[in-house]
Amino acid sequence: MPVPGKSTRWAAVAASVLLAATALPVAGADSASAADAARPGAVRTPARYLNQRLDWQPCDSGALECAAMAVPRDWHRPDQGPSLTVEVSRHRATDPAGRRGVLMMAAGGPGASGLKRPAGLASYAPGLAAAYDIVSFDQRGVGSSTRVTCSDQSAVDASFSGDKRDRSAAAIRETFARARAFVRDCQRHSGDLLPYITTEQAVHDMDLYRVLLGADTISYYGPSYATVLGASYATEFPRRVARMVLDSNVDFTGTWQSFMEGQPLSFQRRFEADFLPWLAKNDGVYHQGRTPAQAKETFERLRGRLHDHPLVLDGTTITPDQLDTAASNAIYQADPGFERLAGALTVLEHPDTAPPAAKQALAQAMAHPVDAGFAADFFSVVCNDTPWNRSAGYWTAQSARATRDHPLVGARSLAYSAVCAAWPRPTAPRIQVTGRGLPPVLMLNSTHDPATYYEGALRDHRALPGSRLVTVVGGGDHGQFQNHNACVDSLVEGYLVDGTIPSGDTTCAADPLPVPVPVPVPSGTGASPR
Engineering a disulfide at 437: which of 4, 238, 258, 481 sits with its beta carbon 3.0 to 4.6 angstroms away? Predict the structure, then answer.
């Protein structure tokens, strides 16, 4: 059979090779509310915070404005220590006459920036932009707010490179040593700040923001970790919630430890139940195997080669851990993640024939498996918020099971848990989420979400009496609203704008998976196993 030239195929691969990186307001601030002030655990807000004026300035193209908000370092001792800065943003309602209030957003992670998100939501959902001032913020510890700092990028890169499936005694000792070094760096650079980088403190920041906006109540939309923020805010301030949408729910009924121990199963499920069948179905394009089992074998062979001979790609050394991270990041959203991951696998298998532009793009995408700034805030929150087992023996055994049963992210679980095992014992108050006093909450989750698994969403749903759960079936994307699913978008916008909520739990079908353009195999690249 004649073999066409390489250019057509590599053009398609180059277009899909960049991997999506991932890596999800407000408490006790309103002295006018006797009910809030009288509740258990209420905090006092000094006048200098309540009386501040937000100096709004343009901060992005379009109508987005930003301002710096001063907040207490410790809401439980608001007169002690220097203030922190929380950078806030807003997109004013485009229909002032029809404005119905404030819609607050928050970012996931923890560790992601929320500052620019109102502009994106306003563009995506003009009906919401007309009805609401859409507002958000960089959570304390993140981005343009007072930031927490731990290890530099090179140290974080070293912690998440190599091969975490290596269960030798030396490799395990090294993982614990790197975790302890990371914690020491956090203490050296941000020690006096670390105890206050928590969800509970951020919730108080959110309510101060509400007060300074002049809003008696807020509506809220939050995905991923922002579901923890939203549910925690609603627990602390149920009378301040008008409408709330929680999208792709972290299991806030347990601890961060229990939640993260469940993630290896859900990432593996998404990879094997959704991505590998799609890859096999598109074997004519990517040539990874005609069946999911063959596609998995191809992935494992590539991973094995990277273990034996790490690939230097345009100055970036690619190891098995970086392949695992690239794969786990890409499967958060099928479109464009599946095509990007498939294109990346093609480049890694055939780097000698890949175009320079494709190699350069992939090298840039894989150079830093975890951003150092993101890691600093992520570990500060998850290690501070809830208790963690501190036994090295427990984590060695637990991570061995995760590596064996669910290796895609199970192999790296020790690198994460070892940090929290070494973290200073937290003293932060913990918010036990309840649904008392809330209006109906609209909850969204897909059945195969890799990061916020469906089983946890069901527990959250039970913990919020009166909530409605929209289950997205037939897919596993992380983040349902603003994902171009007409069924989900209609339910969310109908609820936030008009107050229309389903009478009970309901379902939406996931959007179809992406269909790449078939491209023949170029000369010299071989064919997939048959």
Answer: 238
